[in-house]
Amino acid sequence: MTRPSRQQERIAQISALLDVSPSLRLRDLSHQLGVTEMTLRRDAAQAASGFACRGGYIVATRTTEHYDFDAQMTRAIDAKRAACEHARALVPDGAVVFLDTGTTLPHLARLLAHSKARRIITHCFTTAEILQGRSDVPVEFLGGEIKSSTRSCHADNPEIRLAPLAIDVAFLSAGGIDKRGTVSCSHDYEVALKRAAISLSNQSFLVLDESKIGASKSVAFCEINEIAGLVTEVGLYSAAQLKNRLTLPFHE
């Protein structure tokens, strides 16, 4: 019987790891398997591997739904990072911070891991993976039904779960803000938790890249006057400034 090649053995190992984790950091995986990052990129390039390299991560490509999320992780990545740099400045020392799901806020999680925040609360698996074992700040994960399309958990009656947590600042994701100031997302199951975070936090901010201003998704969850402001790669817009921005011409 022919012995599997080293590449085949690695591909099998990586596939097994991806069965329990939706993404693997390339740098960490390189150290774990004792090979270079370039070797792992070659493994991912094999048509039958079942995974791909997206930015600095190895991600599964076995379903269209999973692929869509991972593709978004590397879209407008510099803008997302810049937006999160601005968002970090909105977190006072000792604050309890809520981080929504999505592909932008994991960048903020990295920035807050060694901050002076008192606690980070999230229901996003990607954010939890980033913070696990790497955060100086205590992290609380909100459980519930797993939704693979957004890599997050959602429980019934999120107000009951969030109310005792005394959230100071909530950072929310969104798929778009249309010209009327309606903020939207892609999935109706996201609405209850987003609404609860807005109503139960002292301040709530949207964090997204500028390309989403003027865009719209299928599920509306709030109006811009319900939030304290929007943070993009440009900086912080107050609700009033954002309303004015929505009346200006958009980038082509």
UniProtKB/TrEMBL annotation:
<keyword id="KW-0238">DNA-binding</keyword>
<dbReference type="Pfam" id="PF08220">
    <property type="entry name" value="HTH_DeoR"/>
</dbReference>
<keyword id="KW-0804">Transcription</keyword>
<feature type="domain" description="DeoR-like transcriptional repressor C-terminal sensor">
    <location>
        <begin position="77"/>
        <end position="233"/>
    </location>
</feature>
<keyword id="KW-0805">Transcription regulation</keyword>
<dbReference type="InterPro" id="IPR037171">
    <property type="entry name" value="NagB/RpiA_transferase-like"/>
</dbReference>
<dbReference type="Pfam" id="PF00455">
    <property type="entry name" value="DeoRC"/>
</dbReference>
<dbReference type="GO" id="GO:0003677">
    <property type="term" value="F:DNA binding"/>
</dbReference>
<feature type="domain" description="HTH deoR-type">
    <location>
        <begin position="10"/>
        <end position="44"/>
    </location>
</feature>
<dbReference type="InterPro" id="IPR050313">
    <property type="entry name" value="Carb_Metab_HTH_regulators"/>
</dbReference>
<protein>
    <submittedName>
        <fullName>DeoR/GlpR family DNA-binding transcription regulator</fullName>
    </submittedName>
</protein>
<dbReference type="InterPro" id="IPR014036">
    <property type="entry name" value="DeoR-like_C"/>
</dbReference>
<dbReference type="InterPro" id="IPR001034">
    <property type="entry name" value="DeoR_HTH"/>
</dbReference>
